[in-house]
Amino acid sequence: MFRLNSVKSILLVMLSFPLLAILICGIYIAKQYYVEYGNYSKINSIAEVILKGNDLVHEFQKERGRSSGFFNSKGAQFAAELKSQRELTDKKLIEFLKTVSSNDYGKENIAFQNNIKKSNELISTLALNRKSIDSLNGSVEDYLKYYTATISSLIKLNAEFLAVSNTNNELYNLTSSYYGLLEYKERNGLTRAVLAGVFTKNKFSKPLLFKAVELKKEIKIYLENFESHATKEDCNYFKNTVSGEDVKKVDTLIDYALENSENQELGISASEWFDAVTAKINLIKKVEDRISKEILQFASANESRSRNNLVAIVSFLVI
Length: 319
What we know:
Layout: H1 2-72, H2 79-102, H3 105-108, H4 110-123, H5 126-134, H6 140-155, H7 159-163, H8 169-201, H9 206-229, H10 232-241, H11 245-259, H12 270-318
Helix pairs in contact: 1-2, 1-6, 1-8, 1-12, 4-6, 6-8, 8-9, 8-12, 10-12, 11-12
């Protein structure tokens, strides 16, 4: 009897090691699925806030350009267009603020909440800045800085996509290409505002010439950043979409302006410039919208997959 019990004990001990190994591996795998599920859930939770913010960015970018043309013409140009644009901005602003107030993720994540707070602080002075622009007080450089800081604070919200996507290389590249595209679009938007002011005054000032040269370099850098992370399909979509006469015209006008920066009169219509560059930026927005949908689709599909895998592994361990 003693020998039989000893054999049973030895067998139990021998079996316990592989069972323990299976349990440890199962717990490790379950933890991985839990982390994945959490990250994909976060993307879906914050996506609405971020995408509403990006829609607001698009309108702020146009308002910045209209404001520059209006201010530099001393109110003689872009008055009606600026009024209409502010209405579009306000509509997107209301949607953004409403979404922020109803989203719980921003309340739980301190870094994200701080970025929202920074954006709201800048947005709170929008009415004051608009009033000063209408009164032609201050300088165009000050208003460019204000709008650019506000836009930058909203774009930074997209960094949260990067923060929660670092466990998956495919998703990380997708969100990185998206972020690069947003920065590329912003440099085009800022170029629109700078040259709208230049063409309205019909000549460069030294600060705006320096800025225009700097922006041309940055546009190239952020386009390369986008292309280095984007999928082959998204790169092809960009090349096929952001093309045509308006895109060529924008490049031609930028080169002409910089090559003739010392001229007392550039002889380029501000409206002609604004229409062409806005058409180009709207094409970039199409690419932006495509990639944002890809991010959401990827996150949703993998959230479901991670949840199902987590349930399966936990069920196996319990059994």
